[in-house]
Amino acid sequence: MNEATPMSPRPSSASTANISRPGDTTPPGAPERPAPQAPGTPRTGAGSAGRPRQGLKARLMKPRTGGLLVLAVVVAVLPAFLQNAFHYDVAIQIGFNAIVAIGLNLLIGYCGQISLGHAGFLGVGAYFSAITVTNFGWPPLLSLVVAAVVVGLLAFVIARPILRLKGHYLAMATLGIGLIISIILNQEAQLTGGPDGMIVDPFTVFGFEFKKPWHWYSLVGGLLVIAAWLSLNIIDSPVGRALRAVHGSEVAAEVVGVDTTRYKVMIFVVSAVFASVVGSLGAHYIMFLSPQEASFFHSVELVIMVVLGGMASTFGAVVGAATLTALPQFLTFLEDYEHLIFGLILMLVMIFLPKGVVPSLAALFKRGGEK
Amino acid sequence: MSLLTVDTLVKEFGGVRAIDDLSFTIDPGTIHSIIGPNGAGKTTLFNLVTGVYTPTFGTVQFNGEPVTGKKPYELAARGMSRTFQNLQICMNMTALENVLVGRHLHLDGRLLPSLFRLPRIVRGDRAAEDMGRELMAFVGLEKYFDWDADAMPYGALKRLEIARALAAEPKLLLLDEPAAGLNDVESREIDNVIKKVAESGVTVVLVEHDMKMVMEISDHILVLDYGRKLTEGTPQEVRQNPDVIAAYLGQVA
Amino acid sequence: MLGEFIQYLFSGLTSGAIYALVGLGFALIYNASHVINFAQGEFVMLGGMGTVFLAAAGVPLPLAVVVAIIGTACVGFALEKLAVEQTKNASVVTLIIITIGASIVLRGAAQVLFDKQFHTLPAFSGDEPINVLGATITSQTLWVLGITALIVVVLQWFFNRTLLGKAILATSVNPLAAKLVGINVSFVLLLSFGMSAALGAIAGVLITPITSTNFEVGIMLGLKGFSAAILGGLGNPFGAVIGGLILGIVEAFGAGYISSEYKDAMAFIIILLALFFMPSGLFGKKGTERV
């Protein structure tokens, strides 16, 4: 891609910079405004006067700085409140789910393309790691990376034909892909252990074995902050704007030069890789893996996390993952009524906060909500 | 040499010919208007030229290169940009971000630099934002920089589309009814903007119902009726053409 | 050889007819509201489980069937009134999540109200198998096919010949215009949900003697019904019927001649292939995007 210095005139044709000349009169009725710059003159205050100066406070209000800081602080401080192994386990599971949800949110929330099959990618990553490490003795870190590459390629191959589909047809196709993967994992029992699942070796990196809860907590917490950072970077970049434009108006994006298919495929692959990495790590963490990981239910759960927390909000994805992971733990006392109540809560939240928890709450504080 | 050459273009929708054997050329550096009664095929023509639709028959040449059947983003990369009759604004973004989308071709759109927010991304975005603000000011939108697009009034969104299209630094700019739904004052402002764009060397093609505007700013007018060329020429020639009068006022009984 | 073929064909048509009924339910609701109702499979479960438990409580079977179908229709009304109608300007994904929430609620309620066991019903007209060209077919198969055919004919008549049916069609094409010419759009929505629920319940009653039922049977049936509706082309009820029959037959022949383990996978592979070449399904509206 060509990154021309935006204000330098293009040799072949006139640059937009000199569309307006200093001598031009302001159109009637228009409010006064600073005269646009003449070409070639050095940039002075006039040209950048429109850009508000960003003080420390303004920077902290931005999700990329302030929000990330808050997330990092929460991750760092949370262990003080975790009293036992069970608490750690829930926190670690939240971290795993949040990373997948952050990736999926890029696809669903920002790019507007639904996937009801992402647990399939998570499952392929998980089984690739589990099988190569446990059965063939690969180093776990190598397996994780190779798995991510394999899943990325798989997603890439699938994405092109699939992402031509729109709306419910895309939902159907992704659902189909997820189900096919899940059926294969169930049926190829000699490799995967079938519905009974398989035992997975622990996660070791250069001889260090992750076994204590705080080992895993540190790893997952660190990865969560990195995932959020990457996601926030993407959103506020040419790639991110292209993705959001695909959601906002695909035809508008196309006519200003956005190859919409390329960006849809790109983010589909990115979100699948996020899922794959979590799949690999999750298999080592639980040290057991069953096709449930790749099931339709898990795919739906992941989508619910994104939508419940708030589409097009990185921190919404984290909140959604935390809610959906922790809620069932709080509801276990209901025993047989657990699913009934869980479903009711889900329906009520989506009916009354259709944009999801975080954007709806953010809108209460400032018009427009989080971007 | 002409900038755009349309040759024997045909577009059928289920047997109906929306564009029927249409040929014309557009010279660089002019303001070229396309007029015609409702349903004459003006917007369809725009969609064909910009690659949104694929022609049933015929060819389009842009800048001496055959571009028939090329995708809109490929045409954009060659210097074509447009606005839409029924707004195509990304309502999930701010006004400025919409303009920045228009800057896409001039920024680094690869994944990895954006993922890690390399300095080139930060620099590129900053320069693009400055330019975006200037363009917004140029079309009279300086009070809307950080507004969410879905909170802006219709007239402002019309201009925002123009700013977005200009951000791509096109050679050819196609405006589909830029003055539709605007009041007189706003219309005249758009007039001015179009003239200034043309003066800067961008070729403008305009679909417009506001005849006052068309007659005043066009160098050349193409009249469509039922997808065919009724006539073309200077505003003076077109104004006096009896076929045009008949098409607009209905057949004289 | 021929007997085997006929056997697979009937088995495919039977499950295909059930998918068709579920798919019809998806299509009716989609047409009226543009909502994809992921609780459609739960209507099937409610029809079957409801009949089983009413019959067990001593209600005569025919009455139990009618009460279960009406009861399920009421659940459909409630879903529309209490959930779908309450959402204003919710995105497609949000609506999908709401209906998934409803499916979880209905499964949870069935688990509490009924139980988690598998149940079956006696076949409508005895278990005497019928021999057709070397294939053995149960009489229940004929009930499934016959009633499905009857429903398709009745719906065809309803949409083409009655004012109410035409009102529903009009609403699906353009809700605003329908409202302007005096059609009670919210009644149409309510009716569509009720009709879909009833269709699902009928499917549930029909299939229970063959496959038995429990609180979770709706999950896979719902997905297959959705697949049928998509394959046929969303918004085309009779496309959904064809889609359902194709799915059922592909599954039955796939399971019989290729691999029974991959029976379900084959249905989805067929759908993916179909969508790659026909992105709007077999009979879906193609239409050019207007900009």
From TrEMBL, chain A:
Keyword Translocase: no
InterPro entries the UniProt entry points to: ABC_transp_permease, LivM-like
Keywords for this protein: Cell membrane, Membrane, Transmembrane, Transmembrane helix
UniProt subcellular location: Cell membrane
Pfam family, one: BPD_transp_2
Compositional bias (Pro residues): 28-39
Membrane-spanning parts: 66-86, 92-112, 144-162, 169-185, 214-235, 265-290, 302-327, 339-365
Keyword hit for Membrane: yes
Chain residue ranges for the region called Disordered: 1-55
CC per GO annotation: plasma membrane
Membrane topology summary: Multi-pass membrane protein
UniProt feature, compositional bias: Polar residues: 10-19
Organism domain of life: Bacteria
Single GO molecular function: branched-chain amino acid transmembrane transporter activity
PANTHER family named among the record's database cross-references: BRANCHED AMINO ACID TRANSPORT SYSTEM PERMEASE, HIGH-AFFINITY BRANCHED-CHAIN AMINO ACID TRANSPORT SYSTEM PERMEASE
Protein name stated in the entry: Branched-chain amino acid transport system permease protein LivM
Automatic annotation (TrEMBL), chain B:
CDD domains: ABC_Mj1267_LivG_branched
One Pfam family this sequence matches: ABC_tran
Protein name: Branched-chain amino acid transport ATP-binding protein LivG
Gene3D superfamilies documented for this protein: P-loop containing nucleotide triphosphate hydrolases
GO molecular function list: ATP binding; ATP hydrolysis activity; L-isoleucine transmembrane transporter activity; L-phenylalanine transmembrane transporter activity; L-valine transmembrane transporter activity
PROSITE patterns the record matches: ABC_TRANSPORTER_2
GO cellular component entries: plasma membrane
InterPro entries: AAA+_ATPase (IPR003593), ABC_AA/LPS_Transport (IPR051120), ABC_transporter-like_ATP-bd (IPR003439), BCA_ABC_TP_C (IPR032823), P-loop_NTPase (IPR027417)
ABC transporter domain sequence ranges: 4-251
Record bears the keyword Transmembrane helix: no
GO BP, sorted A to Z: D-alanine transmembrane transport; L-alanine transport; L-isoleucine import across plasma membrane; L-valine import across plasma membrane
Species the sequence originates in: Caenispirillum salinarum AK4
Entry superkingdom: Bacteria
Assigned keywords, A-Z: ATP-binding, Nucleotide-binding, Transport
Record keyword NAD present: no
UniProtKB/TrEMBL annotation, chain C:
Protein name, as recorded: High-affinity branched-chain amino acid transport system permease protein LivH
Major location category of this protein: membrane
Alphabetical UniProt keywords: Amino-acid transport, Cell membrane, Membrane, Transmembrane, Transmembrane helix, Transport
One GO CC term, this protein: plasma membrane
Family to which this protein belongs: Belongs to the binding-protein-dependent transport system permease family. LivHM subfamily.
Cellular localisation: Cell membrane
InterPro entries listed in its UniProt record: ABC_transp_permease, BCAA_transport_permease
Claim: Cell membrane is one of the keywords in the record: yes
Protein's UniProt keywords contain Transport: yes
Domain of life: Bacteria
MF-aspect GO terms: transmembrane transporter activity
A Gene Ontology BP annotation from the UniProt entry: amino acid transport
Membrane topology of this protein: Multi-pass membrane protein
Biological classification of the source: Bacteria, Pseudomonadati, Pseudomonadota, Alphaproteobacteria, Rhodospirillales
CDD domains: TM_PBP1_LivH_like
Transmembrane annotation, as ranges: 12-32, 52-79, 91-110, 130-159, 180-207, 238-259, 265-284
